[in-house]
Amino acid sequence: MRKLDIKEIEDIALGAALLGAGGGGDPYIGKLVAMGAIKENGPVTLLEPEEVADDALIVAIAMMGAPTVLAEKAVGEKEYDTLRDMVSQFMGKEIDAVIPIEAGGVNSMLPIAACAHLGLPLVDADGMGRAFPELQMVTFTIGGINSCPMALTDEKGNSVLYKTISNKWTEELARSVTMSCGGAVSVALYPMTGKQLKQYGVKNIVTRSQKLGEAIRTVKKHTDDITPEEHFLKFSEGYKLFKGKISDVLRETRGAFNFGKVMLEGIGDYKGKEAFVEFQNENLLANVDGQILATVPDLICLVDAETFSPITTDALKYGKRVYVVGLKCFEMWRTEKGLELVGPRYFGCDTEYIPVEKRYKGGGANV
Amino acid sequence: MRKLDIKEIEDIALGAALLGAGGGGDPYIGKLVAMGAIKENGPVTLLEPEEVADDALIVAIAMMGAPTVLAEKAVGEKEYDTLRDMVSQFMGKEIDAVIPIEAGGVNSMLPIAACAHLGLPLVDADGMGRAFPELQMVTFTIGGINSCPMALTDEKGNSVLYKTISNKWTEELARSVTMSCGGAVSVALYPMTGKQLKQYGVKNIVTRSQKLGEAIRTVKKHTDDITPEEHFLKFSEGYKLFKGKISDVLRETRGAFNFGKVMLEGIGDYKGKEAFVEFQNENLLANVDGQILATVPDLICLVDAETFSPITTDALKYGKRVYVVGLKCFEMWRTEKGLELVGPRYFGCDTEYIPVEKRYKGGGANV
């Protein structure tokens, strides 16, 4: 158990944005929301999963929708009250603690804001260990945990409660309403026991985000005799897939998702080479000179070539110099059930899943 | 108080289909569902509105979606249990009685089936006195009655509960989910007190439907010295707007609505004339030789030229010979608030509302 205060927020937001793999929202927006809530209500208690009682009621709180829209909408604190009341009423029980559903600039932060406002502890675990675009894409689905009763509310005061036959149906029906509500809404979902969380959650994700954020923030201050690039790849345990300049960004907002492709021209060691990264909110596939070097569910992260700050898909801009880095995903995603939910074919990428460390053929500064 | 048994059903379905003004679904499907439920569970008690206690909890039960889709989907009895349980749980109170939301071949019948299955009485009142395509288009909206908590369920077992800021928002968010569920779902909405129902409901609509149905069924057996046409116009209190042969039907299913236009070539007294009727699930506007003869909210009904059976918009077929008949709508629709909700301009028809009896210039056999 420890406290999350304002000074922890910046690093968590930064590290979570890296794990967002291009999605999960803008960490700047996210941290403002979390800091505002802590300033008003005081620090938030972060529990280790092992500190949660087996029969505790845990619920994930998140924003749902296209990150681009999400950045333009305000997040009202009364939305958290609505979500808590709806879930409690339907479960016939008070909520004991909150978890983030995914790691990402916004969706790692909103649960902290919700906890500050509701006076509830946050548990150091989520359902993805990264960000994914659809709500059934959580380790909890692998564990047979129901996303419902799920509560949804918008900033106008409309609210909807779901009980569905599958998590994929929850996604389908919640996505429709999200679009009708303007493209982004707040949700509370996957009410589960402490026992279920401990069995299927991705543990220590908040702490990992914070450490990653701290390392990125101080990447140029390290005292080892290695370059910042080498240092970044070491602490992130990343595979360097490409270094280049953004030459084009193709985007489309469709079905409350941001779809697109970013084109890159090689710089440094990669001069003369070309690459592209496809995304659906999150980065899905990295292709360098005609060869696929990484796919979902592994994390494909674009970071600024100077500062190593993560760049979300909605912040991609022509001319920006970036590294493309691959990170291993949580091991549960590499099982058959995991790949059914979030493998490359689910996203329409015509390739088998091959772990990034096997696709990686060397040539970078990976350690 | 009286009982609705199998023998009453056929006439109610037939008359309600006339009042459906082209919408409200296929009376053949509707009556099979209601008869099946009565056969299994026994007759349904029909209460006069005055027999309902002021503090009773009344709820409307209906199908939502495009009538064309509705005809192709099964209606499972367990859907009624789900709807009752959801509404009761959220209201914290048992439901005392059910009402139809509108008059129509299906939506007058499903509440009867629901009552038979749930062992609840039906009240002889609805919220339209005809059929309309959107759920906020009820006299209850004029009375400031909330459509929520509204429960929605599909045949697969998905269910959704709404609490919105306006009945128009309920429509918007329920329509999205209806489309995602395949185009037709079952809903329970407008939970209200007996007092509210008595104040704003369209009373005696079931009895009126039954009388109309009986008159249509026996239209050729009457003993007066008038023709069947004269007889039909007399008992329906209808204005004869046109008699013609269907020369074309334009259709489009869009946003879970059936949109379209039926073109007519005059026959009999109308030989050499042309007419068309525009619809959105229900008929919206009748135009004869370039002149608008009726618009919503007045009822525009197409009936078979031989049998006087109502023809729903999804049953319109090339070559069919029909009467186009105008019926006065419930008086509350003719107020300013009523016309805001269901006037011709709401439906995109570029004309003021002029009551059918004023637009009517004679020339027919109206009495």
How would you concisely characterize the structure shown here?
The first copy, chain A, is of the alpha+beta class and 367 residues long. Chain A contains 12 helices and 17 strands.
**How many structural domains are formed by the residues of chain A?**
2
Oligomer: homodimer
Strand content of chain A: 25-35%
Strand order of the largest sheet of chain A: 15-14-13-12-11-17-16
Provide the residue-averaged pLDDT of chain A: 93
CATH topology of the largest domain in chain A, what is it called?
Answer: CV3147-like fold
Tally of strands of chain A: 17
Terminus-to-terminus distance of chain A: 33 Å
Q: Pair with the most extensive interface?
A: A-B, 21 and 21 residues
- CATH level 1 class label of the largest domain in chain A: Alpha Beta
CATH architecture of the largest domain in chain A: 3-Layer(aba) Sandwich
Low-confidence stretches of chain A: 363-367
Write the layout of secondary structure elements.
The structure is a homodimer of 367-residue chains.
Chain A: E1 2-4, H1 6-19, H2 27-41, E2 44-47, E3 57-65, H3 67-70, H4 78-91, E4 97-99, H5 110-118, E5 122-123, E6 125-126, H6 139-142, E7 150-153, E8 159-163, H7 167-180, E9 184-193, H8 194-200, E10 202-203, H9 205-217, H10 228-236, E11 239-254, E12 257-266, E13 274-280, E14 282-288, E15 291-295, E16 299-304, E17 321-327, H11 336-342, H12 356-359
Parallel strand pairs in A: 2-5, 3-4
Antiparallel strand pairs in A: 1-2, 3-9, 6-10, 7-8, 7-9, 11-12, 11-17, 12-13, 13-14, 14-15, 16-17
Helix pairs in contact in A: 1-2, 1-9, 2-5
